[in-house]
């Protein structure tokens, strides 16, 4: 996958630099061969995704259970469509409408990524609430107040003329700092957010919902692939469950 998207990015760079048409054609052919090879290697992934969905059904958290199960089910459908595409491109089923099945495949892929990002957002919210609760208990134990006068009155109070916007800006800044602290303290969650966000550009472009161009698609696919390789090398970076 990393090699395929590296070829996509390289092809875009060569086109921008005015490389010879023959070289560009060779890079596109290599990318096509890598894509077809990946489809061959993923023939059993639908069954694996269904097994993962069966395991996710038993999660105790309702939101996590819904997001992860629906994500795996959509991945299973995405891989099934991918298998049909492989059969068409390899000549086993020459009458397959590849454009139609490709669109179906990317729709399932997009919905799976949306579920993944929803799961990430839910976990981030839980961690932010926990971090905020811990901070509040520390403040009460030390006898201090919340920073910036959020809980107390003063110049930032909404009742004070001209104090509404500064207080909103302060609250937003604190939320951003809290988000950064949570993500910094949870590398698996951070990697999953970045990987899913990068992958999101691929189906958006292929479905015509947001045209990014082959350069952006290649770069995002390459970054996502490298992060996936990193989670294989360091299993503790894989988000669980």
TrEMBL record:
It is found in: Peroxisome membrane. Pfam families: PEX11 (PF05648). The chain crosses the membrane at residues 216-237. The keyword Membrane applies. Residues 137-158 are annotated as: Disordered. One of its GO terms (cellular component) is peroxisomal membrane. One of its GO terms (biological process) is peroxisome fission. This is Peroxisomal membrane protein 11B. The lineage of its organism: Eukaryota, Metazoa, Chordata, Craniata, Vertebrata.
């Amino acid at each position: 996958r990393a090699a395929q998207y590296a070829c996509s990015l390289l092809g875009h760079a060569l086109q921008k630099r005015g490389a010879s048409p023959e070289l560009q054609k060779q890079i596109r052919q290599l990318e096509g061969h890598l894509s077809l090879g990946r489809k061959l290697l993923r023939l059993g992934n639908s069954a694996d995704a269904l097994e993962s969905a069966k395991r996710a059904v038993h999660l105790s958290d309702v939101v996590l259970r819904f997001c992860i199960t629906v994500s795996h089910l959509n991945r299973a459908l995405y891989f099934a469509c991918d298998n049909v595409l492989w059969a068409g491109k390899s000549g086993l089923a020459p009458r397959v409408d590849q454009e139609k099945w490709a669109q179906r495949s990317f729709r399932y892929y997009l919905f799976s990524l949306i579920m993944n990002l929803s799961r990430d957002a839910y976990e981030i919210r839980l961690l932010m609430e926990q971090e905020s609760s811990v901070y509040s208990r520390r403040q009460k134990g030390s006898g201090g107040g919340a920073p910036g006068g959020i809980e107390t009155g003063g110049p930032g109070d909404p009742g004070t003329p001209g104090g509404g916007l500064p207080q909103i800006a302060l609250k937003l800044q604190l939320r951003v700092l809290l988000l950064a602290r949570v993500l910094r303290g949870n590398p698996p969650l951070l990697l999953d957010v970045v990987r899913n966000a990068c992958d999101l550009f691929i189906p958006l472009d292929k479905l015509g919902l947001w045209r990014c161009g082959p350069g952006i698609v290649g770069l995002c696919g390459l970054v996502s692939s490298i992060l996936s390789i990193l989670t294989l090398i360091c299993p503790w970076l894989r988000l669980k469950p």
